[in-house]
Amino acid sequence: MKRVVNFQEQDPSAEEWEFKDTKTENKKRKNGHREKFNATTTKRLDHAEFIKKKEEMAAFRKQLPIYSGREAIINTLQTSDTVIVMGETGSGKTTQIPQYLIEAGLASSEIGSVAVTQPRRVAAVNLAKRVAEETMTRLGSKVGYTVRFDDTSSPQTVIKYLTDGMLLREILSDELLLRYKVIVLDEAHERTLRTDMLFGMVKKIQKIRLERQGQDGILPLKIVIMSATLDAEKFSEFFNNAKILYVSGRLYPVDTMFTVEPQADYLDAALVSIFQIHVNNPKGDILVFLPGQDAIEGLTTLVNEYSTQLRPTQQKLLACPLFAALPPSQQQKVFDPAPENTRKVVLSTNIAETSITIPGIKYVIDCGLAKLRGFNPKIGVESLLLHPISKSSAWQRTGRAGREAAGVCYRLYTEDAFRELEDDTVPEIRRCNLAAAVLSLKASGVENVLEFDYMDRPSRASLVRALEELYALGAIDDHGNLSELGKQMAEFPLDPTYSKVLIQSKEYGCSLEIIAIISLLSVDSVFFTPSDKREQATEARKKFLHPDGDHLTLLNVLKSYWEVKGDIEWCKENFINNRNIKIAMEVRDQLIRFCERIDMDPKSSCGSDTDNVLKCFLTGFFQNTALLQPDGSYKSVAGSQNVKIHPGSAMFGKRVEGILYNELVFTTKHYVRGVSAIQSAWLPLAAPKYFNNVRS
DNA sequence: GAGCACTGC
């Protein structure tokens, strides 16, 4: 290998991002203290031990960087209705501020508790566990968490960590969130669809509670927004110029390097850089950010191949792939320490940017690209395309090099290219189908979703499209009001299309089959296809294939899974992702409970008359259909779009009169996924109103 | 005839 990638350090005179430098130098140092309370056991302590432990815990809390600002934080929270707290994730703000609120009497079991939202389940669970330990209480009493399928909270709970999706559901049954005195929206900078919805909703709730203060014992609501990046001003502006608190953390410095020249081939540049770092730098593992599974698997093979050519006196390199679709057992490998005389290279997607933290990383290589979901409301097509990342995403990646000690980040692009990047990633609410969000807003009492108070307003076209979709499904009436069906649909933890199908399954007498299939469709694919065993995986899948397509194929998978009673070895042999199918079974249990609640029989089955299942799916997916053209291609009914069946589908290469599909995503072509065969004569029966309108 | 970032109820 002769090629070299030349890096240069960040231009020190470049003032415009000097602030970013302080950010990276503010690296936290939490790991040194963590062991102390991780060692806590659940065994009953005698009184003396308890006192000692309590003192230790108090001492631990006092030496957190945030503690020095405790009084100031409490004072601000006492005098302001809304506060923006800015600080790195490790500053302790998420664990300490809720405790300060309780200690200062700003929330309690009498006046209402504290809710702290998180975008991810694991974070909510772990934070609750940690704070329960710090407060020396049993998890689920004073401190608890609520995530899907798992709820430890109780009436005594005064600090509750929950996912943002969970808080949204609580609004459905408690429109003013009266059980809470303070709502903390954490990780606000991530701007997930749900946090964005909550911004507007809690702002509205706060206003109403202030107006009705005193009536029926209603108390005002405090809002705390926590963010790790510099968009604090924007949050403050949205929340009526709320006060901003800056919480400093202790973070390790990360040197940032740019390439001197633009790199035409990021994979090649990554490969060369990995070996340059390996040969020239002291020990410490490498984390490489790449856009997708393909790139990761390709580079993994290359790194391991070239590693054998290193001089015998040199350390070896071991490449570990990491992406969401990887089965858990293989994901686990990135946490194992590298073998003797070996440096670990983790090749990862964005999953390592926020969701998974890998210990031992000293070097980060950032290719500057990511695959981003997009949505075109005019033609109703989703896309998944390669885009340059934003500056904040680049800094997030950089930070991953300095979690335990000083590190280096190598960016595979020039400093000029960096300067051209957008400041922030476009919030999710501006780039996805809003049908589910709009239904949820309507069910929570937001009548006019076009006039709703959004921090970043979605385009009018996108909102109108969502309303039209809900109208076509029968969830809203001619006046734009939620129908009875719509109210029922909003209850289900599903996309509106799926809830419609599920509710309709009563008429088609196939709830058993529909619940099973929807459960499998609402998790990531249960099929796993590693690139090096593609043939075996395809072969294994053949035994499940149903001639009518993916929906009934999934049903076959489930039937076989039940026959072997979920055997883990069977899953491995058949390239079934055990984790995903298990989650699907939890979804199924949950859906069964929801069905029983609205007097549906979850066991009603159509037996061998599987056409009923597909006809039933059409009641929700009539807009996702395509008909075979004389030339053998398929054209979508709703958008006259030429679509191709995805190669991973059971219907790939087949020619049938018509197809229905779960999604249409543009990548390199317009691909439809989750495809089944239908007859065009079924269409008007499934959605008479829609097809009569279309035809006339 | 060819492929899919990440969350969440």
TrEMBL record:
Helicase ATP-binding domain boundaries: 74-248
Task: Give UniProt keywords alphabetically.
Answer: ATP-binding, Helicase, Hydrolase, Nucleotide-binding
- Could you tell me which residue ranges the Helicase C-terminal domain spans? 273-445
Any stretches that span the bilayer, and where are they?
none
Task: Region Disordered: list its residue ranges.
Answer: 1-40
Assigned EC number? 3.6.4.13
Stretches of the chain forming a coiled coil according to its record:
none
- Entry keyword annotation includes ATP-binding: yes
* EC supergroup of this enzyme: hydrolase
Catalytic activity, as annotated: ATP + H2O = ADP + phosphate + H(+)
Q: Name one Pfam family in it.
A: OB_NTP_bind
* PANTHER family linked to this entry: ATP-DEPENDENT RNA HELICASE, ATP-DEPENDENT RNA HELICASE DHX33
* Name the record gives this protein: RNA helicase
Q: Can you name the source organism?
A: Helicostylum pulchrum
